[in-house]
Structures are given as C-alpha cells and as structure tokens.
Amino acid sequence: MKKNYFILGAAITAIGLTAAMGRSDNALSGFTKGTPVIKSVSSLTFGPEGVLFIGDSQGATVFAIDTRDSKRNARAEAADIQNIDQKIAASLGTTPENVTITDMAVNPLSKKIYFAVQNSDGTPLILRLENGKLQSLPLKNVSYSTLALNNVPAPDAKDQRGRSMRVAAISDIAYADGKLMLSGISNQEFASTFRSIPYPFNTQQESSSLEIYHAAHGRYETNAPIRTFTTSTINGKNYLIASYTCTPLVVFALDDLKPGTHVKGRTVAEMGNGNTPADILTLNSGGEKYLLMANSSRPAAKLKHKDIESFQGSLTEKATSTYAGVPFEVSARKNVTQMDKLDDGRVVLIQKSPAGSTDLLTINGKDL
Predict the structure, then answer these.
(1) I need a labelling partner for 260 at 20 to 30 A (CA). Which of 82, 117, 127, 215 fits?
(2) Is the pTM of the predicted complex or chain greater than 0.70?
(3) Is the separation of the CB atoms in 190 and 210 below 8 Å?
(4) CA distances in angstroms from 31 to 27, 109, 145, 196, 218, listed in the order given
(5) Average of pLDDT values for 242-249?
C-alpha cells in the first residue's frame, strides 16, 4: 500500500536539510552490497535519500534498498497510462493474468512511480516508471540493509477461517521522524500490532498491541490488523489514522504507542462494511486539508480534516446504519486499487474502468 509519509513537521524539515546537503551517509548506515532474499513485497514506502523500504510478509522481514534515485524534482509530470497492467506484463514478457500489482509508491524526491509486482510463479519484482517507460529495479548486487521482525505468526499458522496469518504480518508501512512504522499481526495474545523501528536499522523494534471498537460489528476487536494508515496532526498532537477491514476509521495518539503497551484507539467513523481499504493519505488542496481513502468494494472517499478534528467522541455502540461518525464525501471513482500522493495537490491512482481496463491516472485531490 502505500505510500510516502513525510507528513510530520520534523520529518519534512529533515528532508529539506538532507536535500540541501546532498546524499547523507547516515541514510545508508549499515548497508551492505549483495542480493537480498525477498520472498514477497507486501508494502512499499520511501525514506530519506531515495531509500525504498520493502515490507516482506512471507519473509517477516523489512528491507531498505538504495535506489540511487535521490535527485529532487520540483515539479512532477502527470502520469496517465491506459492498460497499465498490460504494459507491466509486457515489460516482463508475460500477460496481465500472470501479474498482480501489490503496491505502488511515489518517490517524494524524484517523483518517479514504483510498482510492486507479484509474478504468478511467486517471484516478487519492483518496477519504476521513468520518462514514460517501465524499468526493473535491480535487486541483485544492490546496497541494502535488513531487519527480521520478532513475534510473527509461524509460516503455517492459520486463522479461524483457515487463512494464512503470515500474509498479514505486514499490512502497511510508513516512514517519519527517523522511524519505520509497520502495522500487521503478531503471534501474541492480542495479535493486532503496531511496530516502530528506528532507522537506520539496529536490533531495536518497539511494538504495541491495538484494540478498537468496530461499530459495524458491534464489538471490540484485538486480532484484526490495520489495513492501511497515515500520520497527521490533529489539534496540535501527532496521530496515527488507521482503517481496518469493513472500514472503521480509528485514531491513535502516537505518544500512546509506547513499547509493550496495549492501546485502545478512538473510532471516529464507520465507512461501510463488506469492504477493505486499499490506501489512505492526507492531502492539502485548495487551502483545505483532506483525508483520502481508496476502497476495494466501495467508491473512494474524502474526509475534511477539520471534521476529524472537531469530532471529539468515539463510536462505542453498534451502528444502526451503513455509515456513522465523521461525515465524508463519496467519490464517483470506483475500483481504485492503489493510490499515492504525487505532490501536495495531486494523486496518482490505479483504477479499473467500467470498460475493463486497468489504468494509471493522475488527478487533482479535490477532484477525487
């Protein structure tokens, strides 16, 4: 899923200083040259100096890859490609039914778009869109660092429905303020987990277990993972804004997510059950701050940030209607499978059209 999260003020300042000084040795501290053993690419996000973070659920590991793509581009060109799935498949010498786009991320420095692709034979690949052409990102003899996650579900662990639990070890990742943040599940009693990992990697990885009230289900839940999240400032305080399957929207104060704690989130909206959120991000458009969310089974949605700030309560009773809590606008855009911020006013997204094509589009956030 995701995305770049240079949202918090300190992170933005740090990036600006880094860009002014050139490449930072600290961003590549602890890197080695070789071929990382990547079993899957569940999620992508960018860190400083064009470092690409890869969340590998099957391998229960995170990787930091030096893409050498750190030149700042002040103005990104719009990227609009019809049948992007066909273009990706053709670049790999195969057909669309043999590839799955598992994530998409925009490098906030170069504005180049990266795609995580899973081949039908299980091989994970990374592609980069450059000057309108797709190129494979080399994953052999590259400079990288890695960290294996602790307390993850066993490779053969199943949930009550017989589904693999390991695939949810990493559900989303983001970078801000010198830390890589991860959502997913663990093998602990309260499985839903948020991890904060200092970067550059060392042996330290802090985690909290999470609990939410799911108003559509009418119960508290501790095992369902966050599906996608972003970070933002609400009334002067830094928050994690997270969405789950069946689309409750929940906020957690980042200061509360301390090592070893069990944290209850505040459910601020129910945005339609029978649905899985694909991506979530914050955007400034027309002088107003928005939260944008793409969904698997419902149209994309837009919430005004000021409405989230003004909602001081929490949903703690079973919802009697499809929607509850903070109001939101329902977009005319359906079947948006991936989304990321191109710049402060525009997003790139992958959408399945009514005609059946899968297209890469650039739109103004206010038009979502």
Answers:
(1) 215
(2) yes
(3) yes
(4) 9, 21, 5, 20, 47
(5) 96
